[in-house]
Specification:
Mean pLDDT is 85; it is low at 1-9 and 14-18. 68% of the residues lie in helices and 12% in strands. Helix 2 packs antiparallel against helix 5, helix 5 (103-171) packs antiparallel against helix 6 (177-212) and helix 5 (103-171) packs antiparallel against helix 9 (375-407). The strands form 2 sheets. Strands 2-3-5-6 form a 4-stranded antiparallel sheet, with no helix packed on it. The protein has a two-stranded parallel ribbon with strand order 1-4. It contains 9 helices and 6 strands; from the N terminus they run αβααβαβααβαββαα. It has 410 residues and is α+β, with helices and mostly antiparallel strands. The protein folds into 2 domains: 2-59 and 102-262 and 301-407, Up-down Bundle (Outer membrane efflux proteins (OEP)), CATH 1.20.1600.10; 62-101 and 264-296, Outer membrane efflux proteins (OEP).
Length: 410
């Protein structure tokens, strides 16, 4: 039963080259296209445009129609004082109000919306950066499994080639039957290892699809990612530093708006219609009125100072966060650069070791045909070669993971 499953699995591996090839860029594009958070941020930007229109609309003339029909019954012993209620009130007025001298207040409100939109733009950029980094990281993890499957398949082919040769040598009495049994066990172990790696590959591929919002579960051929360091490491252009600058401008604008709220406010008004105390008087009580409203804040319990203090605290927090971020940013660059240098050195050493192991395997294959070496030694060399090759794959993927972090520093 196990053999049957492994044969089916081997057929799948052989058919991998016939399924659709998917590159890292394809997955990143899908993730950006499907992300609900990015869609939400785009909607927030559109909402900001509508907020600007609303502010402009509030400073245009405001026209309202006001009607009132009120009757207050009165008798000698009950009812409102007729001198106050007039017995009733019937009115229908068209009111017009227009705020005056509001250019600075309107500008401050528009600047507030503009800065909020800039914050959303930066959040959008940060979200895109995080999404690209997450997708790239998961793609590299999945691609490592993909490479390991291919390499383990090549190792399995090598063992099966030697298995056919060893059978002949065992029949000739050159090698004992135990060597053939050890080789058979190694072949089975390699097949089981491939099966386990394949399951791991499918799980990681499913997680990659999940991150990107892809529902397709069919097999894919992953394309080797071409990652190079693209980041200029200019902290001033990083999204987080841009956010700090916008927050600083928000605090400045907030203080300006506090000051503007304590300036005198003037608005003009006018109305036209009728006001009468009895319905029969309505035809004779049509008229109009107009004038100015003037408001000057005198005392509010020191609310202005409290708002100043709050703004100062917000600016102090922003400054401390910015300072800490600057230190962390430089530390990350130095740490990742050192990791990359050490990993490059490790990969070079592993490749040299692989080269020597490959030469040794070829020598052993020649000497096995002549019965000059122990076959168990050959199996040990193959196992060591497999471990070294897997270390190379992990190291190369780790190197790409480091580059991924360097490219998407926020």
């Amino acid at each position: 039963m196990l053999r049957k499953k492994l044969l089916t699995f081997s057929f799948f591996l052989a058919s991998l080259t016939w399924v659709n090839a998917q590159s890292l860029d394809n997955y990143i594009s899908k993730a950006l296209e499907k992300s609900p958070l990015l869609k939400d941020l785009n909607n927030q930007l559109q909402s900001g445009i509508l907020d600007s229109l609303l502010i402009n609309a509030t400073y245009k003339p405001q026209v309202n129609q006001v009607s009132q029909a009120m009757y207050a019954p009165y008798s000698q012993n009950i009812g409102y004082d007729e001198a106050i209620s007039n017995g009733g009130n019937f009115a229908a007025l068209l009111n017009i109000a227009q705020p005056l001298f509001n250019k600075k207040i309107r500008k401050g409100q528009m600047d507030e919306i503009s800065l909020s939109n800039q914050t959303i733009e930066v959040n959008k950029k940060i979200t895109q950066t995080e999404l690209k980094q997450d997708v790239t990281s998961q793609y590299l993890t999945t691609y490592a499994d993909y490479l390991q499957i291919q390499f383990n398949q090549s190792t399995l082919s090598l063992l099966k080639e030697e298995q056919a040769l060893l059978k002949s040598l065992v029949n000739q009495g050159i090698y004992p039957q135990t060597d053939l049994m050890n080789l058979s066990l190694s072949v089975t172990a390699q097949e089981i290892a491939i099966k386990g790696t394949f399951i791991q590959f499918k799980n990681n591929l499913a997680l990659l699809n999940f991150i990107c919002g892809i529902s397709d579960t069919s097999g894919v051929k992953l394309v080797k990612p071409d990652l190079t360091i693209r980041n200029s490491f200019d902290i001033g252009s990083s999204p987080t530093m841009m956010k700090f600058r916008i927050d600083s401008l928000k605090n400045v604008n907030s203080k300006l708006m506090i000051d503007l709220n304590y300036r005198p406010k003037v608005s003009a008004f006018a109305d036209a219609g009728f006001m009468a105390v009895a319905p029969e008087n309505i035809p004779h009580n049509f008229g109009t009125s107009f004038g100015l409203n003037f408001t000057l804040p005198v005392y509010d319990g020191q609310q202005r100072k409290i708002q100043y203090d709050k703004t100062a605290l917000a600016e102090n927090s922003r400054s401390k966060y910015k300072e800490f971020y600057s230190i962390q940013y430089r530390q990350q660059i130095n740490q990742l650069s050192e990791q990359l240098r050490l990993t490059d050195d490790l990969i070079s050493r592993i490749k040299n070791q692989l080269s020597e192991q490959e030469k040794l395997i070829e020598l052993y294959k020649l000497e096995i045909e002549k019965g000059l070496v122990r076959f168990i030694d050959f199996l040990n060399i193959v196992n060591n070669y497999t471990a070294t090759k897997n270390n190379l794959t992990l190291s190369e993927m780790n190197r790409l993971q480091i580059i991924n972090k360097m490219n998407y520093l926020k």
